Prior knowledge:
Strand order of the largest sheet: 1-8-3-6
Number of strands: 10
Strand content: 15-25%
Largest sheet: 4 strands, antiparallel
Order of helices and strands: HHHHEEEEEEHEEHHEEH
Distance between the termini: 46 Å
Structural class: alpha+beta
Number of helices: 8
Radius of gyration: 25 Å
Amino acid sequence: MSISIPAGLTELLQGFTVEVLRSQPADLLEFALQYFGRLKEEAAAAKAAAKEKEASGRRAGTPAPGHDRGQAPRRAPPDARGVNFAEEPMQTDSESGEDEEQRFPAPVINRFTRRASVCAEAYNPDEEEDDAETRIIHPKTDDQRNRLQEACKDILLFKNLDPEQMSQVLDAMFEKLVEGGEHVIDQGDDGDNFYVIDRGTYDIYVKCDGVGRCVGTYDNRGSFGELALMYNTPRAATIIATSPGAIWGLDRVTFRRIIVKNNAKKRRMYENFIESLPFLKSLEVSERLKVVDVIGTKVYKDGEQIIAQGDMADSFFIVESGEVRIIMTRKLWTCRHLKGFWDLVWKF
């Protein structure tokens, strides 16, 4: 079974991504709710205004736009799903009043060959086998691996990987040196790599009406390029280095084989387990999915304390693998099953 991309999804994701980069919201779900609600209201208002304008033109006896001089009527533009910068202050890398064409630096020739277009291909993580692709390894010095591990330690996409998967990701990543003014990725291009910043500063540009506008920056940390790989869409923004620096790249095949497939597998596991919990049966499906969205993975060493009796409760736990020992006053229980752990926890 293949998965097709619905019409309009690319523009919708690009617009939302840019707004997130601009606003850096603390509550992403609430921000998404407000953003898409605003889009719906604007689309409804634009539709109503267009109908009113058409009705006014007919009452005045004037032809509709595009009908004069025998021209075929022009189609109205579709409802805007991207970001509208018309009423927003524009942030650029120059305040000298140069021509619009000069605000977007000319790209430096990329030293890495880009692959052919894949935006139309379908991808289903449930169908692709782990052994379908050869494991990619780029040799690294001890210094390079240490720098790479430091750069990747806070990357959200890597949080759910087990040690073996993380090791494969680190093996497959390659270092790329960049110069100031170099385009790392360009909006509209196909996605070939996911990038993690090692050092350097980078501007995020998005084209609106043919003009590139700076919507954010990276300063010696961060990652980008995952959306195009996850959703088979063109790049949603252009990333330009503003200083000499270094980035780590992860090829599309390894990204999908390990990260996309692993995240899909983890999500299915969490969904199935949440559905099996009696005390969550009263939740709607959408509410249970919200619980799944906020679940994170944490690894504990043998003998490490997870919670302590008497502490304030700020979270609950699901035993994904391993064995836990639960001590309450003078009683000792050993738990080997997920459900058993939950039953005991809720006896506290």
